[in-house]
Amino acid sequence: MHDKTSLHKILKLMKSHFYSCGIVLKSISAIVNFAFMMLRRDNTLRPPLRITELLQLTHLGIPLEHITWPRVTMTSDQWICIRHCLMGSNLENVTVITVLNPHHTLPQTWKAVADCAQMNPSKPIIAVKAGSTFQIYDLGTRKCLHRCCLTYTIHFWTWVNSTTIVVVSDTSVYHWYLDDHNSHPVKIFCRDSRMKNAQLVHYVSDSKMKWFALSGLIAEDNHVIGITQIFSVDHNLCQNIEAHCVCFTSYQFKGNAQPSCVLIAATRNANMHGKLHVVELGPHLSGNLAYTSHTGSIEFSNEWCRYDFPSSIQVSSKLGLVYIVTKYGVMHLCDMETCTTLCSVNLCTDVIFSTAFNKETEGIIAISRNGQVLSVELKKEQLVKYVWEVSKRLHIAERLSLVLDVDQT
Question: Which parts pass through the membrane (predicted)?
């Protein structure tokens, strides 16, 4: 099997030979020209992304029916946590928790009485929930570090960062600060009445814990509505926006002296129109320009997209790029400064229910319903060329070439 370079040389020699002999071979010439066209198309039009399968969860003994949200959680690119039953007819009632690093695939498994479990995003610590009781364990020592029994129904919970867990009840949103060993969850803000009918799916904060966002989904008239409740600590105010998923990041816009806090939100309405919003948040920082905001379109154009919607957002603040992943496995790569979609690609043919930002590659990791754990990595040199030649966004290509330190040509 010849590689593309060898094939290119062979085709060039064939074409030269036919012409030098003066033979009019229209059909062969057409084939050669078509082959050249396909080579050029392959080299210039393919999205500049490398998609690889890191592992298949079913190969680790995880039953396919248990590869679902929230049985499988990924709080960062370092940890995947799975609550499942052991395979085998005599073991169906035995619940276990499997924890693994997607880059090394050396799982740890042990029996547990739990209805949910999540790994700390940066430490070998696991939070386990059984009913209204939480327990926090050190995986190395198997020692219980924290324990808390709550008196209210828990509708949603997750790690906010390495020291904080959010707990959402019928009426309120609480934070449990684990750096205080004697602490209990404290109320942060009230849950909006419109959120009570929503399936809660995300909770995020900015790095300074000044902004929080609770996102939920509501099924209505054959489509899924996304609603997000934003809370500002400094202003002690909440506001609802239409968004299926959001995230906060710190980013230094062109012309600003300092990085500022930015809200990124993705949504899709009943008419198959998707939107990406990038909004600079306060407080205003000295030396920065006036607050900026941008809006761009996300394409949901074919019949397969009828019930699709944005399900997660990951951001490379270093590169100024936004990864929007939809429920049915489409990824849109967007420029953060303009909200321009640079390219779109199908990651897989199944539902993707969890993603995480890969700090090492500035890409993402995604888990699909069929058990695939996928890595999406930028081909950085090809990215600049693609944006320059295919997307025709010259100013974005210039910015990326400076950030990535690659030539535009």
Answer: 21-39
270 CB neighbour count, 10 Å cutoff: 11
216 token code pair: 């939920």
Q: How far apart are CA 159 and CA 354, in angstroms?
A: 14
Which pLDDT tens digits describe the chain residue by residue (409 residues)?
444 445 455 445 544 544 444 434 444 544 445 444 444 444 456 899 999 999 999 999 999 999 999 899 999 999 999 999 876 655 556 789 999 999 987 899 999 889 999 999 999 999 999 999 999 999 999 999 999 999 999 999 999 999 999 999 999 999 999 998 778 999 999 999 999 899 999 999 999 999 999 999 999 888 899 999 999 999 999 999 999 999 999 999 999 999 999 999 999 998 888 999 999 998 899 999 999 999 999 998 776 678 899 999 999 999 999 999 999 999 999 999 999 999 999 999 999 999 999 999 999 999 999 999 999 999 998 999 999 999 889 999 999 999 998 876 5
Residue 181 CA: distances (Å) to CA of 147, 177, 275, 350, 391: 9, 8, 43, 42, 53
Residue 64's Cβ-count burial label (10 Å; 0-12, 13-18, 19+) is exposed
Q: Which residue has the tokens 């990535």?
A: 404
